[in-house]
């Protein structure tokens, strides 16, 4: 579905990724883990077109997408969320989700909020899709509240809604649960599982919480100092001496 082959990414003298190959298979939950600075966010940025590696290939549905504009990669279906939230705090939940429809709007974003007669039908269709997402994420009761007034857990849920509005074919999430309490993590995990069941799309996520990773992921790839050191089921990876060494710094 989406893959990196032999990817090397450097920032000046820093090698963030070194000859990394990874494949995201259809309908799987792939977790990317590793110690701080291991290159996890860099790998997500490369897979979603935000960073262009100096070496290697990125393919999506069999096509080389290296160098394609990032908005085009997103509208082709590789949709990512970022650490924290990228929402408009003064706008309502529903309007923030509608922003996610931007890539799918023929009339452009401005027209979505202005009632030109010729855009009314399209506007109604986008609103219906946004309302369905609101229902799916069980945030009907806050749909007209400004996002800035919400707690972090709910804001992350709205952020997921905005990503869903973009109709992802691959959903890429950078530490979706960072900064959440246990209850918020459980809620978001449930919705991520629901998304996979409802949309049958692969999800790639970077996550620090090993409990979450072991519960959610079908497969885990481990990065350390920009290299992929393991790739397997959660149980395989957990028992891998190289992984244990990377995390604990113990001698091999
Ligand atoms: N835009 C950038 N400019 C310069 N160096 C960068 C940039 N982005 C990442 N790096 C460097 O690349 C390396 C990998 O960083 P990256 O953020 O991908 O790691 P990470 O595994 O996501 O870390 P964390 O778990 O702390 O978020 C680090 O040494 C980092 O300092």
TrEMBL record:
Record SUPFAM superfamilies: P-loop containing nucleoside triphosphate hydrolases
InterPro entries, per database record: AAA+_ATPase, ABC_AA/LPS_Transport, ABC_transporter-like_ATP-bd, BCA_ABC_TP_C, P-loop_NTPase
Any one Gene Ontology molecular-function term assigned to this protein's record: ATP hydrolysis activity
Presence of the UniProt keyword ATP-binding in the record: yes
Domain annotation ABC transporter: ranges: 2-250
Gene3D superfamilies membership: P-loop containing nucleotide triphosphate hydrolases
Alphabetized UniProt keyword annotations: ATP-binding, Cell membrane, Membrane, Nucleotide-binding, Transport
Gene Ontology CC terms: plasma membrane
CDD domains for the chain: ABC_Mj1267_LivG_branched
SMART domains: AAA
Stored PANTHER family: ABC TRANSPORTER ATP-BINDING PROTEIN, CONSERVED COMPONENT OF ABC TRANSPORTER FOR NATURAL AMINO ACIDS-RELATED
Name of the protein: ABC transporter ATP-binding protein
Classification lineage: Bacteria, Pseudomonadati, Pseudomonadota, Betaproteobacteria, Burkholderiales
């Amino acid at each position: 579905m989406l893959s990196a082959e032999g990817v090397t990414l450097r920032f000046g003298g820093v090698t963030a990724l070194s000859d990394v190959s990874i494949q995201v298979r259809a309908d799987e939950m792939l977790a990317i883990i590793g110690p701080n600075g291991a290159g996890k966010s860099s790998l997500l940025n490369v897979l979603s077109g935000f960073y262009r590696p100096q070496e290697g290939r990125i393919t999506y549905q069999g096509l080389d997408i290296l160098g394609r504009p990032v908005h085009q990669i997103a509208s082709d279906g590789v949709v990512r969320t970022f650490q924290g939230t990228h929402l408009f705090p003064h706008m309502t939940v529903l309007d923030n989700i509608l922003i996610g429809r931007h890539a799918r709007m023929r009339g452009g974003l401005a027209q979505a909020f202005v009632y030109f007669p010729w855009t009314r039908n399209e506007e109604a269709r986008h609103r219906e899709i946004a309302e369905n997402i609101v229902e799916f994420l069980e945030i009907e009761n806050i749909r007209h509240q400004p996002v800035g007034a919400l707690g972090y857990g709910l804001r992350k849920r709205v952020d997921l809604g905005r990503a869903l509005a973009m109709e992802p074919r691959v959903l890429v999430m950078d530490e979706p649960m960072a900064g959440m309490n246990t209850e918020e993590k459980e809620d978001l995990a449930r919705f991520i599982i629901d998304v996979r069941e409802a949309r049958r799309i692969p999800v790639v996520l970077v996550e620090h919480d090993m409990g979450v990773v072991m519960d959610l992921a079908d497969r885990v790839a481990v990065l350390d100092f920009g290299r992929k050191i393991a790739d397997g089921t959660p149980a395989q990876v957990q028992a891998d001496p190289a992984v244990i060494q990377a995390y604990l710094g113990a001698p091999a």
